[in-house]
Amino acid sequence: MIYRYCGASGVQLPVLSLGLWHNFGSVDDFSVAEAMLLKAFDSGICHFDLANNYGPVPGSAEENFGRILKRHLSAHRDEMLITSKAGHDMWPGVYGTGSSRKNIIASCDQSLRRMGLDYVDVFYSHRYDGVTPVEETMQALVDLVRSGKALYVGISKYPLELQQRCYDYLREHDTPCLVSQYRASMFNTLARPNLDLAAREGSGFICFSPLAQGLLTGKYLNGIPEGSRAAKDSGFLQRTQVTAERVEAARELSLIAGERGQSLAQMAIQWLLSDERVTSVILGTSSVRQLEDNLRSIEGPDFSSDQLQRIEAIISREGLTL
Fold first, then answer.
1. pLDDT by residue (tens digit) across 211-257?
2. Given CA atoms 126, 131, 133, 137 in this order, what sign does their dihedral have?
3. Which residue segment(s) compose the domain that 292 sits in?
4. How many domains does the chain have?
5. Is residue 221 part of a domain?
6. Crossing angle (nearest 10°) for helices 288-295 and 30-42
7. What burial class does residue 313 get, using C-beta atoms within 10 Å of its C-beta: 0-12 exposed, 13-18 middle, 19+ buried?
8. At what angle do helices 305-315 and 244-259 cross, to 10 degrees?
9. Backbone phi, then psi, for 203, in 5-degree steps?
């Protein structure tokens, strides 16, 4: 495994992290989740990314992570960086969602109980809710650190115009933003300005959804397979998003990947990491085999200038952003 320093801090993260957004909930096969997490740790992945609402049902990913941690990895707590977040819908009532101090503090307490932890290494504000003053949310994060419930803080998906205010407030209160997390892939380059700002301000940068919910795996090159994310009635990838333009772009990108001796997924992950300012890419896998395939992304050759130009020409087309 390769490790990079997180922004201007002394904390190192593996360039590949394991996310528990999908496939670790109460509706999933626990034995598969357990095998993936243990394989990740044995492969040098020491960063595990969670949120209070991950499941389904909400909270169950943290509960399952806590079970695996207690059963297999409790002696290795200080070898891991465990993160969680709050901000999206979690429990009934007006306090179970959003970015208020009430929600942030209560969510962190609940997350710690579910995982069986005394503290998390990073607690994020999962989103800007459009209502709560940034200062209220950031102060709640500061107070989590001061109370010992979190060692560091982070922000996720904050719009560019508020990202700077977050950094400024946290720095002024002696709790600099360790890491910023944004959706980024070959089919979503909208976070480039967020990366530029994070790098200037000394915050690490983590990319999630690096494979565009599976569109950059080659899975959809010949239609929508039964049982795939797009085949389901609910989820983050809908049939309507598997467009001819995206399929054709994925097909052309897969040809470049083949020239490099890689799968499309491996190249897509390595492409994100080719920017040294990216601290880590979060993997979301459904099997040990898929995890092993993703792990090989860091073994690929460096990109040639010609390959980078060809890739940029493809992903710059209109209608690809997801």
1. 998 889 877 666 555 555 544 555 566 556 778 888 889 999 999 99
2. negative
3. 3-215+264-303
4. 1
5. no
6. 20
7. exposed
8. 170
9. -95, 140
